[in-house]
Amino acid sequence: MERSISSVQPPAFGDLITILSIDGGGIRGIIPGTILAFLESELQALDGNDVRLADYFDVIGGTSTGGLVTAMLTAPNEKSRPIFSAKDIVPFYLEHGPRIFPPKSSDWLSSIANLVKSLVMGPKYDGKYLRGLLNKLLKDLKLHQTLTNVVIPTFDIKRLQPIVFSSYKVKKSLDTDARLADICISTSAAPTYLPAHYFKTQDKDKSTLEFNLIDGGVAANNPTLVAISEVTKQVFGADPDFDKIEPLDYARYLVISLGTGTAKVEEKYNAQMAAKWGLLGWLVKGASHPLIDVFVQATADIVDFHIGDDTLTGTVASTDVTTKENLQNLEEVGKALLKKPMSRVNFATGLYEPVKNGGTNEEALKRFAKLLSEERKRRTARHQTPNLSRTSTGGLVTTMLTTPNEDNRPLFTADDIKDFHLNSCPEIFPQQRGTFASIRKTIKALSGPKYSGRQLCGIIKENLGQARLRHTLMNIVIPIFDIKKLQPTIFSCYEVKKNPSLDALLSDICISTSAAPTFPL
Predict the structure, then answer these.
(1) CB environment 265-302: b (16+ within 10 A), e (fewer)
(2) Is 305 helix (H, G, I), strand (E, B) or coil?
(3) What is the number of other CB atoms lying within 10 angstroms of the CB of residue 160?
(4) CB of 87 within 8 A of CB of 41?
(5) What is the average per-residue pLDDT within 189-212?
(6) Can you tell me the mean pLDDT for 110-120?
(7) Which residues fall within 8 angstroms of residue 26, CB to CB, at 6 or more apart?
């Protein structure tokens, strides 16, 4: 079960964990689509027209319409590149939105008929067009084939529990290796709007697992937290893709969370209104659905950085209004959002407020694009030399280049190595001069090593301190030979994960690999 080829290297080769999350919101997916198109264009300006968002993010997550966008950005074509580029998202919604959510007649008789249908006969839309479209686009592509890791929440109405479709989980169990089309149909099945979705999967033993799914937003509408949770599990589980990353080191997370807009400022509801609602009132209030709005917004404020707009009013704030006018308005909202100040949520009010000196969202995305580009290049460079493997003086150089200082950066730069040897070698290999120097060297070589090694031991211990093999900034491999066991011993970052007894002090490893017979020690 191999993943399609992607140019993104795992976080173990970089400094950051990169996460993109996209909220739900039906036709309002046009708004994050506009933002994503801008971000991808900035990345292409830096790295070439062929790059895509899937080349930069370790995880892309989304629920409802965000789950659909996630699949669009990560599903591979026959050349193992994304089926859609980010600039294709808005045209996709403009073309297919009116067929997924066909506009209803606005006369009073039709409104009553639609209300009765949604209360008694089933969801507002039959979902046939969406199912057909996704099956046509995604065919039989499965979760394990996405070009980068994805996390898409759903909710199983039969088991009454969330089901998270995660690339990380599918590596361990085929139970959730579902078709991407089935996952997208499921996460889009918002109650009262679209029907629940049923499908089955098989594990490696051909055992069948059934799913009865609806929109994951009813339980996990914050895909950012779900994605971070999945990553944290991998770190705790010692996934080699997250080597040398601490579970709670959230400073290394670069998270871009995109909203589809809300109507919080409009404040459509209040306690006096809700106090009078029965079941019908909670389900339908004018053109709105209060219960669904509550589900959608209940967890959206947990993320402290988020590109979104909480000032939407009227039909622009709706999930399913697909008139030509509203589609154009949504596109304009996305473009205007780029020009708005970068904001963070005020937990006292629940509203987004400008970040001081944060600039606009457009400027923030340009900064993010640069960070993403630099991280990708950093990983590519390190992946091309995935480990340093040297012996003797090469082992010493290896540790110099990979031992961390107090800022978690290499103790030595490459430029420092020459100066280190020029300054230290005369102490490590002191030269004897005089008439009888050659005779003394010969006698000493017969009775013991040529050099005492005291200077070498002192210099190495002074520089490397208490740093151990597990602390190196990248994987290293340093061979030595055990004279007692008469066998090689290889000090390797890979082996130390399995055998902690090999987690020696780097100073001891360096002194050992430098101990050439007849020379030091």
Answers:
(1) eeeeeeeeeeeeeeeeeebbbeeebbbbbebbbebbbe
(2) strand
(3) 8
(4) yes
(5) 87
(6) 59
(7) 64, 65, 101, 190, 193, 260, 318, 319, 320
d(C-alpha 75, C-alpha 266), whole Å = 37
Tokens describing residue 345: 């949520």
CB 476 within 8 A of CB 510: no
| Residue type present at position 277 | W
Total Cβ atoms within 10 A of residue 406:
6
Q: How far apart are the first and last CA of the chain?
A: 51
Helices (runs of H) and strands (runs of E) counted in the chain:
20, 12
Residue 389 pLDDT exceeds 60: no
3-class secondary structure, 179: strand
CA-to-CA separations, 406 to 16, 464, 467, in angstroms, rounded: 18, 12, 11
Q: Are 150 and 165 in contact (CB under 8 A)?
A: yes
Rounded percentage of the chain residues whose pLDDT exceeds 70: 76
pLDDT at site 272: 65
CA atoms within 13 A on the CB side of 36: 32
For residue 8, is pLDDT > 60?
yes
**Residues in contact with 370: Cβ distance below 8 Å, sequence separation at least 6, in sequence order:** 46
pLDDT at 283: 52
**How far is residue 445's CA from residue 520's CA, in Å, rounded to a whole number?**
11
Work out the average pLDDT over 177-205.
90
Report the C-alpha gap between 12 and 3 in whole angstroms: 18
Least confident piece of the model among 6-15, 75-84, 402-411? 6-15
Instruction: Find out whether 179 and 144 touch, Cβ atoms under 8 Å.
Output: no
How far, in Å, CA of 289 to CA of 268, rounded? 11
pLDDT at residue number 416? 84
| DSSP letter, residue 152 | E
Q: Which two tokens stand for residue 81?
A: 């590149």
46-49, long-range: CB < 8 A, 24+ apart: 46/369, 46/370, 46/373, 47/373, 47/376
In whole angstroms, what is the distance from residue 215 CA to residue 156 CA? Answer: 9
Residues in the chain: 521
* Residues labelled catalytic: 64, 215
Per-residue pLDDT at 406 exceeds 90: no
pTM to 2 decimal places: 0.68
Q: What is the pLDDT of residue 302?
A: 35
Residue 109 phi/psi, 5-degree rounding, is: -70, -40
In the chain, the largest separation of any two C-alpha atoms, in whole Å, equals: 117
**Count of Cβ atoms closer than 10 Å to residue 208 Cβ:** 9
